[in-house]
Amino acid sequence: MAIMEDSLPAIKSFLPNTQVSAHFRSMLLRFLIAILTRHGRNSCMSAASAIEGKPRHRAQPGRFLKRYRQAIADLLTAITLKMLRDQDWNGRYLLLLDSTLVATAGQTVENTFSTGNSKRRPAKNRCYTKYKYQRKSCHCFVFALLLTPDGLRVPMWLPYYTKPYAKTRKIKHRTQAQLAAQLICDAQVPAGIELIVLGDTAFDAKCVRAACRERGYFWIVPVNTNRVFAAKKHGKRPRVSLRIEQLPASRFQTIRLSIGSGPYAAQRRASCHRTARRRDGTKSTRTYHVHSERSEVHNVGMVMLVFSSSKPIGKKIQREGTKLLMTNAKHLSARQVCELYSLRWQIELFFKELKSTLGMNQYSFKDFEAVESWMGIVLITFCYLEWTRRRKLADRRIDDRQRKCWKHARSYTVREALLLGIRYREHQWHLRRLKTNHGLRTLRKRYTELLSQEYRCLA
């Protein structure tokens, strides 16, 4: 909890100059403080009591989330534009695509679906239990994380609507791949910038490639197991995955990728403990055995296939343990493709920070509009942490040791530094008021306001 409403450092500079009401700004700050200072599960009650000097009823945050969904989305768009305003747009930018699920309980929760297989497959001598378990339902969100050459992370997202919910809202149902294509088209990146889209097998889709072609982006995705090579009209098309067993071991070359150095060390933001030298003086590296070749894939065109394995290559190549990547960036080498695709794991770390540090999955709303507003506020909080880190790196008063810590800092480290700053500012506020009689009266009045209305007469 915080005593002052402006406890967050430089919060007025972070929020763009948009025409919002005082009520909207006050409730937004309550959610930001509640997310950053949370200890346990988030709730509207914690947001209502986030500022001790100005408590609110626990129903007000819930009504705020339902009424200001579009205003929160517009504010998040304005914040992302503000974060990218200082970019020089030189170098190679990365756009990571992935989706995440958030489990939720309750049969009346809107826009939920089950990921489990409810159909029982017949089997001989199978015994079914008589106990009935609760249906597991979840929400799905598609994210795109923009990585700049200096290590800045800018998030974008779209909610996934199920067919019944889309029919109720009278909107068109779109798959996760179509939502990812929409995020690629909506990326706030100027034309002519080298941007590479990284995704997993779920985003090996025609609509994603069409969106990249429209914006002039390159893409790197794992090859789907059902992909086949291009052949004549009546010819047999062999599967691309069968090519792994046909390659001789002599074609593979060994490469070593360092975690703490290289052209993409700023995007990795690995901790100092992982990048430190070992006892024998060597750096922490990862060894891969790679091979690349150009081939024409059916319904895709001429692409470059990259075969990589982290296990030693024997006389015969095994399909298990061999990664097969496909990209239209034919000007890249096999080493560059493997090093670029290793950065796709950054979006998994991004999901971990959202759920573990900011409590993105700790909500319980029946209306999905409130869920969308909650997700927007969590991403605004994440952008505030990224903006604070960049502001600290631009500060010339810090020394090299502090600059190195801020360079590798992630959401948890920045959050702890902000909480320390909040406590320091409030201690200074107390010390200034303890020096004068007027300050003592102000301090007593403020602490009296912390009590409920029926108990203030005792103070």
What does this 3D model show about the protein?
With 459 residues, the protein is α+β, with helices and mostly antiparallel strands. It has one domain: Transposase Inhibitor Protein From Tn5, Chain A, domain 1 (Alpha-Beta Complex), CATH 3.90.350.10. It is 39% helix and 16% strand. It has 17 helices and 9 strands. A 9-stranded mixed β-sheet has the order 3-2-1-4-5-9-8-7-6, with helices on both faces. A hairpin with a 5-residue loop joins strand 2 and strand 3. Helix 5 runs parallel beside helix 14. The chain is globular. This is Transposase DDE domain protein. GO terms for molecular function: DNA binding; transposase activity.
What portion of residues belong to β-strands?
A: 15-25%
CATH superfamily: Transposase Inhibitor Protein From Tn5, Chain A, domain 1
- Tell me the series of helices and strands, N- to C-terminal: HHHHHEEEHHEHEHEHHEEEHHHHHH
Give the oligomeric state of the chains in this entry, treating copies of one chain as homo and distinct chains as hetero: single chain
Strand order of the largest sheet: 3-2-1-4-5-9-8-7-6
Radius of gyration: 26 Å
Write down the CATH class: Alpha Beta
Largest sheet: 9 strands, mixed
CATH architecture label name: Alpha-Beta Complex
Number of domains: 1
